[in-house]
Amino acid sequence: MSNLKENKKNNIIENALKLFAQKGFYNTTIPDIAKAMKMSVGNMYNYFASKEELAKFAIKYSTNILADELREVNNMEISSKEKIYIFVRKYLENVQKSPEVIEYFLRVYLSNREVFKQGCEGFLCVGEFVTEVMILLDDGAQKKEFREQEFFPAFGMIMGSLGGFAFLSGENVLDKDLLSYSDAVADNIYRALKYDE
Amino acid sequence: MNEKKPTVVWFSAITCNGNTHSLLSSNSSKFELFLKNFDFIYHGSLTIDKSLEDIIKNQEQIDFLLVEGAISSNQKFFTTSNDSTKNILEKLVQKSKYLIAVGSCASFGGIHAKFTQNDDVCGLKDAIEEENKKKLKHPIINLSGCPVHPEWIFQTLFSLKNFKEISLDDEGRPKELYGTLAHHGCTRNEYFEWKIEGNFGQKEGCLFYNQGCRAPMTHSSCNKILWNDINSKTRAGMPCIGCTEVDFPRNNMLETKKNMGIPLEVPLGISKRAYLSISGVAKTFKIDRLHKKLME
């Protein structure tokens, strides 16, 4: 695919993400997205065959942003504790900068499972991000910086904590600036994972 | 066929004789073929009219010296024929053209090298003086395995008899026999592909995920040259324990070492990140056929 077409696709995804996050999957129509793009509805279909397809691309696109950031952190020559702190900060910065990405995850991906039933089974559309969390946890456990436990409880603890915090931010119930909580959230995650003698 | 048959001497050093058992369990027609083509002049466990002393004193050259078991110079630890295995080996090597380590103990020291009471137990390569190694016609050949497959011994001997040399990998093992992994030819490969776990002793499922199977990182032809012509460990439901590799035996060989549920080691030649990524995708698919018993 040419770069131009690729850029256009990403542009559509970004606009769709915002609309899906605001109005929900079913209340957002292809004409709504086309309107936001200042494109004709017909032209939209040159890029995505259906709204469902667009939704699947959108979840890949948004989690890959997080995967890229976490991969960068994973490749740093620092302790697992520091990795957690940096990753949490980057995650919350993302929530602040592009709240629609997390909103989309919470409001569409987690709530409208039927849309993702085919083609996004299991970790198929979020695989890159899950792999990076695996690398983070595996590396920490190998270095005995994290205690040994099964993958899913550890994964759920990290993502539950981050997702929950993003939700609080989206609901505007936090007293202070989102990023001022970063170290405290990271500390909770690290304490839950850390190796105990 | 008046040509003189090459002589074969089998020296048993520090060993459980597992490789001897393996040799004697070989396919009988192959064993006959071996005896027809080679002059098997000495084996300590077989009825043969020569003693080890006769062999050492005899002026005659040994074409193929096969050594089973690890080597030590410590006579308090182990002696045979009133001498250390290292001394006997040095004497035999000086008369030999080809030196073949039969089994993992002779190749790399094996289980005996794990004894903490004696730290000079080793495989042939480390036991022999450099100048004596130079007298050999060929670099030392390691036929690792616990035990080694009898056919690997025959194939190596016939190749050397006919072609005088054999191509070896970095560990001194014949590439022809150790160039591929035990995983090749495993009848459970489809379970491996779709990440379906199996249990010890059962026909279904892959033994890599929980049972410690090392087939995807072990150089061996166990699943191509079958044992007793019909079977292999993995076919019978026993995980590969990596017995042809330098680090054998390891601890907890029937367990897959994991961190946070993620395998510590992944198949040879793939990065952990890539492996985890494709595993996650493969696990997504539930193939009913592979979750059923093969025979109800």
UniProtKB/TrEMBL annotation, chain B:
Query: What region holds the Cytochrome-c3 hydrogenase C-terminal domain?
Result: 178-252
Q: Which residues bind [4Fe-4S] cluster 2?
A: H183, C186, C206, C213
Pfam families listed in its UniProt record: NiFe_hyd_SSU_C, Oxidored_q6
Cofactors demanded by this protein: [4Fe-4S] cluster
Give binding positions for [4Fe-4S] cluster 1.
C16, C105, C146
Q: Name one GO cellular component term.
A: membrane
UniProt xrefs under SUPFAM superfamilies: HydA/Nqo6-like
Q: Which InterPro entries match?
A: Cytochrome-c3_hydrogenase_C (IPR027394), NADH_UbQ_OxRdtase-like_20kDa (IPR006137), NiFe-Hase_small_C_sf (IPR037148), NiFe_Hase_small_N_sf (IPR037024), NiFe_hydrogenase_ssu (IPR001821)
Q: Keywords for this entry? A: 3Fe-4S, 4Fe-4S, Iron, Iron-sulfur, Metal-binding, Oxidoreductase, Signal
Q: What sequence ranges are listed for the domain NADH:ubiquinone oxidoreductase-like 20kDa subunit?
A: 16-159
The reply on keyword Signal is yes
Where found, per UniProt? Cell envelope
Q: How does it assemble?
A: Heterodimer of a large and a small subunit.
Name the family the entry cites. Belongs to the [NiFe]/[NiFeSe] hydrogenase small subunit family.
Q: Which protein, by its recorded name, is this?
A: [Ni-Fe] hydrogenase, small subunit
